[in-house]
Amino acid sequence: MLQCKRVVNEVLSTVDFVAPDDRVVFRTCEREQSRVVFQMGTSDAERALAVARLVENDVAGIDVNMGCPKEYSTKGGMGAALLSDPDKIEKILSTLVKGTQRPVTCKIRILPSLEDTLSLVKRIERTGIAAIAVHGRKREERPQHPVSCEAIKAIAETLSIPVIANGGSHDHIQGYLDIQDFRQATAASSVMVARAAMWNPSIFLKEGPRPLEEVMQKYIRYAVQYDNHYTNTKYCLCQMLREQLESPQGRLLHAAQSSQEICEAFGLGAFYEETTRELDARRAKLLARSPEEVEEPAEDTSGIIKMAVKFDRRAYSPQITPKMCLLEWCRREKLAQPVYETVQRPLDRLFCSVVTVAEQKYQSTLWDKSKKLAEQAAAIVCLRSQGLPEGRLGEEGPSLHKRKREAPDQDTGDPRAQEPAMPGELCKKPFLALASGKESPLEGW
Prior knowledge:
This protein has 14 helices and 15 strands. The protein is of the alpha/beta class. It holds the Pfam family Dus.
């Protein structure tokens, strides 16, 4: 999350937190803003605060996971590993409470002794957190071990802040009424349900759970409408099917390698195609509203010199590209080599690059389908602004010193494809995803 940029996704009407490699790490929307609590894994107070401040305007609360026993979490000092370091727990929670505008909570597991557990939760309470969730199992215990309602109850009777009971799925919670029974058995203020809610989210309906087929179809529709990655959708559906994974439908789900194939496995192929068309139409509408780009050079308030140019590889010699010409000119003038900063917008996955030469920035206002093409366009803007040759066929200019040839640009179809490092790119920064603006939610979502 520390690497992510906050992006308003106008197509989906969501707020996305996007990593430099274009992965959406966290996606939320206005509908859940007053309900969703952001839980993080962390082992560092300042890093935790940086993430909390990044998301605090889009969530209802901030939670720190101090109970996950999985190795991927504990080996980094996160999750249940924090239980053996009360000083670090205190620093993380105190820093968050003081530094964020949202309520701060944490989730823990019980320690080997009740005395140590009560000592820890008292110290946690003094940090000023709003509530504490307690998974009634020890760090080494797994779902097959019984949950200790007695330990949760002792904690609830000791603390003045709300205690949220967790760990009752299957043994205690199989329906809505069981949630209340588990709350009473633990004397907790409320109950956190994890596995049972994954098996069938309609467990929260007072009138009773809905048929699994109906729940799965509704979940798939949400997943497609909000462009959830198919691997996550597939995992959640597998959790719902459980013992039915060997059924014909379960086998189709297991074999699915895309959201479309998942939809087809559940008889939602037509819905997928209709939704995809609607989202494509939204993208096209948003793109069509962009103003016409001017052809003449212009300098905006940010000091970037801009032109509407593109790199057409057919107009250039395969041995000479604008980037090579710019690099060679910088060397002759004893200037620092060009630095390229490239961004990608999620709306249409196109790229734009800014090149800095002698503390001046240059950019093409036209977006390109690959990072390399966008960088060549930025180089063209710089060269044309300086009245320099750019390597076009038939163009006369000073010859380049013989050096490693830059490979012709090729569109691989994957904007994240690895590219060899080229001269002038040693200081190049990774591209970032970005977008702006706001759109009302789709009807019926």
